[in-house]
Amino acid sequence: MEVITVTADAAVFTCNAYLAVGEQTTLVDAGAMDGVEGVVREHTDSLDAVVLTHQHGDHVSELDAVLSAFDADCYAYGDHPQKTHDLADGDRVQVGDERCEVVYTPGHAEDHVSLVGERALFSGDVVVYNDGAFDDGSFGRTDYPGQSRERLIESLEELLDRLPEGLDRLYAGHGDTYEGDVRAVIERALGRAQRREPKYPDE
Q1: In what residue span(s) does the Metallo-beta-lactamase domain sit (predicted)?
Q2: Does any domain span residue 203?
C-alpha cells in the first residue's frame, strides 16, 4: 500500500496527513496546511474517504477544503458537522488496501481513535516515533485541560493488546514515519508515560 505524507512540505504547524492509495483511497486526517487538497490531487483524481483520528485543529483545519474538492465520505468519532459515518471502538474501516480496526484511544483527546491494520498503524497522537520531546517512542501531550495521562496509559496498553503480529509500519500524527518493530516503540512510549516523564519540562 502506498502511503504519502501530503503535509510534508508544510510551512505551518500541522499534523502529518496521510494519503493511502488503494482499494479505498483514504486521507487520514486533513491537517492545517493551506492547499493540502492540491497536494492530494497530485497523487489521485478521486478520494473515497477522510478518516479523522481526532478533531484538534492541526488535524482538521483543512477538512472543509478537502471535502469541497473531493466527493469523499468523512469518518469520525464524536460529533462533527461534516461527518457522514460514525466511528466506534471495534469498527472496521478500509484505509487504502488495509482493513483497519478502530481502537478508541483517548487521553490526548477525548475523541481520539487509532487505526490498526495488518501491517500499518495510523496512531494519530496517542503514540509517535519521534517528536522533538522523545526519540524512539513518544506520546501525545496530556497537560492541557481535558487531557489525561492516566487515560493515555490505558490507551497505549489497549493498543498493545490489539496489535497483530507482523504489523511493522507506524504512521503517527507528528514526527517521522517508522518501519520496524512498532510494538517496541509503543512499549517504550508506555514506559515513559508510566514514569510520568514530562514531555516538555521547560514549559
Answers
A1: 14-174
A2: no
- Asked whether residue 199 is assigned to any structural domain, the reply reads no
CA gap 173, 13 in Å, rounded: 12
If one counts every other C-beta atom within 10 angstroms of the C-beta of residue 164, the result is 12
Burial class (CB in 10 A: 0-12, 13-18, 19+), 145: exposed
Residues in the chain: 203
Q: Give Cα 162 to chain centroid, integer Å.
A: 16
Cell 488495509: give the residue. Answer: 98
Any domain includes 50: yes
d(CA 79, CA 117): 24
Decide: 133 and 180 in contact? Cβ < 8 Å. no
pTM over 0.90: yes
pLDDT digits (tens, 9 = 90+) for 128-156: 999 989 999 999 999 999 999 999 999 99
